[in-house]
Amino acid sequence: MTHSPDPGSLKVDEDQTAASEGDLFVFPTSFGQQRLWFLDELESGSAYNFHIGLRLTGQINVSALEKGLKEIVRRHEALRTTFRYAGGRPVQVIAETMSLEMPLIDLSGQPRKEREVEAERLTRDEAMRRFDLAKGPLFSAVLIRLSDDEHVLLLTMHHIVSDEWSMGVFGSELAVLYKAYCNGEASPLPELPIQYADFAHWQREWLQGEVLENQLSYWRNQLEGVSLLQLPTDHPRPAVQTYRGASQSLLLSATLTEALNALSQSEGATLFMTLLAAFNTLLYRHTGQEDIVVGSPIANRNRVEIEGLIGFFVNSLAMRTDLSGNPTFRELIRRVKKVALGAYEHQDLPFEKLVEELNPERDMSHTPLFQVMINMTNVRDTAFELHNLSAERLPSVESQSKFDFTLYATEIASGIRLRLDYNTDLFGSWRMAQMLKQYQILLESIVSDSDQRISEPSLLTEAERHQILLDWNATQQDYSSEKTLVHLFEEQVERSPDSIAVIYEDLNLTYKELNQRANQLAHHLSSVGVGPETNVGLCVERSFEMVVGILGILKAGGAYVPLDPNYPHDRLVFMLRDAQISVLLTVEAILADFPAYAGTAVCLDKDWLDIASVSDGNLKRRIKPDNPAYVIYTSGSTGNPKGVLITHASI
Q1: d(C-alpha 408, C-alpha 428), whole Å
Q2: What is the spatial distance between Cα 287 and Cα 507, in angstroms, rounded to a whole number?
């Protein structure tokens, strides 16, 4: 730990730090444990479980396996820890001994398909296991027998006593112990020099005064004025954050991975920094925000004494990146590198302490400081290799999401395995699958031209480009040359009467409703003399009235002449006279400021009660394709505007 006392200082005197209660010892929690305890008190559940499933092939020694698990529990106090509230705060309660039972569930007698289904159900149930932090134990192991030489081992821990690094420690120790016990040997593992409680005590003693202020000073400056990430969601955000989740996966090719590593090396950056820069770019493209904070976990095991411990050491770093100025991707990598190195240098301040000290405005619908995370994991860190057994790690059954979404990236021999865990109360599976694909497309574009600016790469696949540019624009179709706009519209009404035809602000009209209103207006216009070859002025703002007005004029047989209410009076007077407009459709407010008009004025608001009193059925009037549909006027920039008559057949 940066600026820490000498190495020996991590070992503390139990007489000074622990209260003894028979075979129990009470210690202060770490800052991280304290936060998880409070979260569990607010909403007890399994959002903070850590789970691994292993498919074991070969002849298994169940006794040696169980003995190995019990020895790991004996070695690591964290796995014998429970939590209670005492003295105004949560504390760790460490049992001198704790029994571990590994249930063996035998499914070998069931048909293969049924036992696989049951094994999957048991795996999901274990991953969602509800731990009681006060009673414990906070670690469980279940063995499922599928056949004599095929088993599934399920290991589940509450995050308050473990992290991903811990699972690597667990796997390494289990491999050594299982082999020794299979061979009838004693444990070859040396006793641990310190325990997690030593770290928790040291953390609280060390992180105060000048040390705390130096760390806080950096993070205050780094996170001043930070704002929420405004992600577009598929569902309204709940008032209180939920943790229901699902995941989407994708594999980046070895070729792309090699190119990403080469780009990273050329900028003196790590692969993680390049992936984070691309992730920031994707978020920028989805939100338009140029100031983005992404969380990233860090192992926080920068002392040799704690490398071999099981416990909750991981810390979350808030990576705030400035994307302003539309930088090239190479420039963005440099910005991200600077941010990451600064965060690593100040990683000792627990995220929980940072939130407590910064005290940002809290909103129960969001996590504080950041809403999305990226996590670069190493598959070798959590590999399990057991004596004479083939061990395959099962795919994640993650059904919870602690953030809006979290991107996991794991470099493996065949490339980079991506997994996007997301909150299902916010996002649909299609959007998240699309986002992963867009991330892949972005990375491919970046390695092909890392000097392009972050706004430039297309996020569309070739199939999507074809669909948008060609398929959705392939609207050409044959129709009778004898049909007019009115005929075509009325046929559409017959096909889909209840479909939405017009949307204006928060209102909408179906085809049936629009047709009925247009028919009522057409009947009224016919009664005041509108028919074929009649030009009708239409002077309204963009609104429902405009659409109803156009259709009503056409159904009456007339041609509409659009008149912009914002035109100068001289231009409106000229157009009224030049087009020989005998009927004007408008609204009362516009008519009050309209030039003097001697023809018939119909107000679509004031007169609507009279209009709505007539029939809403289609008119029988015959309209021909060569009848005028509308008259459009030129701008008149070189003189008076000129009217151009457009027939139904020309549209």
Answers
A1: 18
A2: 27
pLDDT of 8 strictly over 70: no
Q: What span, in angstroms and rounded, lies between the C-alpha atoms of 17 and 23?
A: 16
* Cα distance between residue 355 and residue 32, in whole Å: 11
CB 435 within 8 A of CB 453: no
24-47 confidence digits (pLDDT tens): 789 999 999 999 998 888 776 666
Which runs of E-coded beta strand occur in 459-506? Answer: 500-504
CATH 3.30.559.30 spans which residues of the chain?
A: 219-357+364-379+394-467
Three-state secondary structure string covering 180-223: HHHCCCCCCCCCCCCCHHHHHHHHHHHCCHHHHHHHHHHHHHHH
Q: In what order do the strands lie in the sheet with 643-647?
A: 600-603, 583-586, 535-538, 559-562, 628-633, 643-647
Parts of the chain belonging to CATH 3.40.50.980: 485-650
CA distance 597 to 16: 98
Residue 21 CA to residue 26 CA, distance in Å, equals: 8
- Residue 62, by phi and psi: left (phi above 0), alpha (psi -120 to 50) or beta? alpha
Our separate counts of H helices and E strands in the chain read 19, 23
Taking only the tens place, the pLDDT of each residue in 69-96 is 999 999 999 999 999 999 889 999 999 9
Query: With helix as H, strand as E and coil as C, how does 291-318 read?
Result: EEEEEEEECCCCCHHHCCCCCCCCEEEE
CB atoms < 10 A from the CB of 217, how many?
11
DSSP state of 407: E
Q: Supply the pTM of this predicted model.
A: 0.72
Determine the distance from the C-alpha atom of residue 636 to the mean position of all C-alpha atoms in its chain, rounded to a whole number: 52
Q: Which two tokens stand for residue 181?
A: 């016990």
- For residue range 559-610, list pLDDT tens digits in order: 999 999 998 888 999 999 999 999 999 999 999 888 888 889 999 999 999 9
**Other C-beta atoms within 10 Å of 235: how many?**
11
- DSSP output for 555-623: HTT-EEEE--TTS-HHHHHHHHHHTT--EEEE-HHHHHTSPP--SEEEETTTTHHHHTTS--SPP----
CA 517 to CA 179: how far, in whole Å? 83
Check whether domain 7-197 has CATH 3.30.559.10, yes or no: yes
Domain covering 219-357+364-379+394-467, topology: Chloramphenicol Acetyltransferase (3.30.559)
**pLDDT > 80? residue 486:** yes
All CATH 3.30.559.10 domain ranges in the chain, comma separated: 7-197
From the candidate CATH numbers 3.40.50.980, 2.40.37.10, 3.30.980.10, 3.80.10.10, the one assigned to the domain spanning 485-650: 3.40.50.980
CA distance 568 to 588: 18
E strands present in 96-172 = 104-106, 139-147, 150-158
Residue 376 in contact with residue 294, Cβ under 8 Å? no
DSSP 360: P
Phi, psi of 215 (to 5 degrees): -65, -45
Q: Which two tokens stand for residue 523?
A: 């009947």
- Cβ pair 37, 83 in contact under 8 A: yes
